[in-house]
Amino acid sequence: MTVSRWLARAGVAVLFALCVSLAGVAPRAADEAPKFDSLPDDTAVATIDGKPVTAAELRVAFQFLPQQYYFLPAEFLLETVLNQMIDVRLMANAALAEGVKQDEIERQVVFYRERLLRQAYLKKRAEAEITPELVKQRYEEMSKAAPAEDEVRAHHILVKTEDEAKAISDQLAKGGNFEALAKEKSIDETSAKNGGDLGYFTKSKMVPEFAEVAFATEVGKNSAPVQSQFGWHVIHVDDKRPAKPPTFEEVVPQVRDQLTAELVERAAKTVRASAKIEIAKLDPYAVLGLPKPPETSAAEEKKDGAPASDQPAAKDAAPTE
């Protein structure tokens, strides 16, 4: 069973994006913590007009590089980040010298500071609350919640017509080799190359007509011809087994993500419960500084026609059940 399917069957909604900026919040396991030498934060790596660029400042700048850069040599990364820092510092100084207005910049600084504080707050709570024991416990709960599901391994031969499928069934009944016939006759080119082998699959992975017959057929037996949207199938069932859930190690990141998402939701509820929040009723377009969409006149609405619910059904529309 795939990790994503196991998570879905365990009732995990993969909606972590709603929690915004979870990167860096979920704690690492103790054995995942990186070990490396690190210079003191105040170590001067370079100077710009006599003012130092410290190791701590470069580490902050490094975090803004795209992740694909992280696999490049450290010498290249240091040169890249340092050059960016030099350009940023010099251009910031030039902006101050030319009297660039800073009102909007200050508002952004306040917002980013609050976001960073929020992330630090969540990270501190995560390190205290999302323990290895809790991750293991959640995995076990999810394993119990995921309904048991069987898998079948089967071969099939796909043809266009029922007569072709019946002829193949007759050949198999007389001792024909299933894999050889699949390679010769099947129009499913992908599986035909492997003698019709479809590997293991769960019931939900196949179209219903095919799945019902495959799971009802005994191991080692061939099915009668069955029709699906793809054509006519003759199925040989090789094996049946319970689907194996993913191991703990395979889903640790997803389990931590789920626990982190829940922590973010709890934290938001906690801080909101102790705060007095009043929201003014204002025009959202005016608040966000967005242009309003053009208003539609009554004449234009009439020209466009009545709402769908008021229109008669099309003459040729198919009846609904």
Give structural attributes.
alpha+beta, Chitinase A, domain 3, 2 domains, 4-stranded antiparallel sheet, two-stranded antiparallel ribbon, 12 helices, 47% helix, elongated
Q: Explain this structure to me?
A:
- With 321 residues, the protein is α+β, with helices and mostly antiparallel strands.
- It has 2 domains: 140 residues, no CATH class; 93 residues, Roll (Chitinase A, domain 3).
- It contains 12 helices and 6 strands.
- The strands form 2 sheets. The protein has a 4-stranded antiparallel β-sheet. Strands 1-2 form a two-stranded antiparallel ribbon.
- Helix 5 packs across helix 10.
- The longest helix is centred in the middle third of the chain and has 27 residues.
- It starts with a helix and ends in a 17-residue tail after the last helix.
Q: Give the end-to-end Cα distance, rounded to a whole number of Å.
A: 36 Å
Kindly estimate the percentage of residues that lie in beta strands according to DSSP: 5-15%
Number of domain modules? 2
Rounded to the nearest angstrom, the radius of gyration is: 31 Å
- Got a strand count? 6
Uncertain parts? 13-23, 27-33, 306-321
Task: Average the pLDDT over all residues and give the rounded result.
Answer: 85
**Element-level helix/strand string:** HEEHHHHEHHHEHEEHHH
* Count of runs of 4 or more consecutive helical residues: 12
Instruction: Summarize the main sheet.
Output: 4 strands, antiparallel
**In which order are the strands of the major sheet placed?**
4-3-6-5
> Which structural class do you get from the secondary structure elements?
alpha+beta
* Backbone shape: elongated
